[in-house]
Amino acid sequence: MVKITIIGASGTIGKNVAFSLAKEDRIHEIVMFSRESSVERVKGEISDMYDALSADNIDIILTPTCDIRDIEGSAIVLITAGTPRKQGMTRLDLAIPNANLVVNYCRDIAKYAPDTIILIVTNPVDVMTTLALEASGFDKHRVIGLGNHLDSLRLKTIISKHFKINTGEIHTRVIGEHGDHMVPLLSSTTIGGLLLNYFVESSDLDVPTLVKALKTAGTNIISKKGATEYGPSYAIANLITTIVNDSRKILTVSTYLEGEVEGVYDVSLGVPVILSKNGIKTIVPLRMDDDERMEFFDAARAVKKCTQKVKKTLKE
């Protein structure tokens, strides 16, 4: 049986992930960590969840806490804590205020849960993945960012709606930065086993409009309801259950690169990996066209520049 910790459990994402994971058979305890001032709120969320879970006879331990020592024995520690993105803000705008928070938590994780896998959701997630890796001292296969998994799901939705085809028939992927420099791999996208290019030739698909819709999907949701909620929560829960069940799915997450993809190094970016119970099993080889490759290099430069800038602001 598996224990999971969610740091930032009083937030919208944290509580939604907890509720999704509570239905997973192999997870027996979810530690819902928050600041001391938010513990009573978390206790209320837990009582509400128990009432709902009883309808399906689900028996799980939901533990509210503000004591970091309670993370001991966790198989995965999820960090969602941080300043949320608001309308008009880019993910990179959040880098400096969130950096010290993530670094301090990762130092605590290394102390109290040295064998865990760290999953970073705090934005900008690619920058935070590198900071988490360095602060924890863990091997990079145990420090994972949400990366472009959510972006890939969004791209699948956009293509599905355009062609009015079930999402299960669409295989696509977004890589690079989880932000303005994301790179949709349209050259290798398939629908029912056929390359997207085949469908584009016989349809009215406007590729630039599609890419714009993808890159502004999160901003569009925030402008209408104030925050993204269900998409990120499900994407995060999906990553965690893939690890917990040792499913070995290929998902696009942020990981620290050391030349494995197009020679890019010293930066964390979203790339496809095989996920297992030990974290990242291996990075999957990629094939890009020339335009996608150049965009990937642009993403690497942008994220690396931001990471270096943020490092200079960190408190010792």
How would you sum up this structure, described in words?
- 41% of the residues lie in helices and 21% in strands.
- It has 316 residues and is of the alpha/beta class.
- Helix 1 crosses helix 9 and helix 4 crosses helix 10.
- It is globular.
Shape: globular
How many domains is the backbone divided into?
A: 2
* CATH class membership of the largest domain: Alpha Beta
Helix content: 40-55%
Q: Radius of gyration in whole Å, from Cα?
A: 19 Å
What is the total tally of β strands?
14
Structure class: alpha/beta
Distance between the termini: 37 Å
Strand content: 15-25%
Please describe the biggest sheet, giving its number of strands, its sense, and whether it closes into a barrel.
Answer: 6 strands, parallel
- Overall mean confidence score, pLDDT: 93
| Low-confidence runs of at least 5 consecutive residues | none
The H-and-E topology, N to C, reads as EHEHEEHEHEHEEEEEHHHHEEEH
Fourth CATH level, the homologous superfamily of the largest domain: Lactate dehydrogenase/glycoside hydrolase, family 4, C-terminal
Annotated CATH topology of the largest domain: L-2-Hydroxyisocaproate Dehydrogenase, Chain A, domain 2
Total of helices: 10
**Architecture of the largest domain in CATH?**
Alpha-Beta Complex
Strands across the major sheet, in which order? 3-2-1-4-5-6
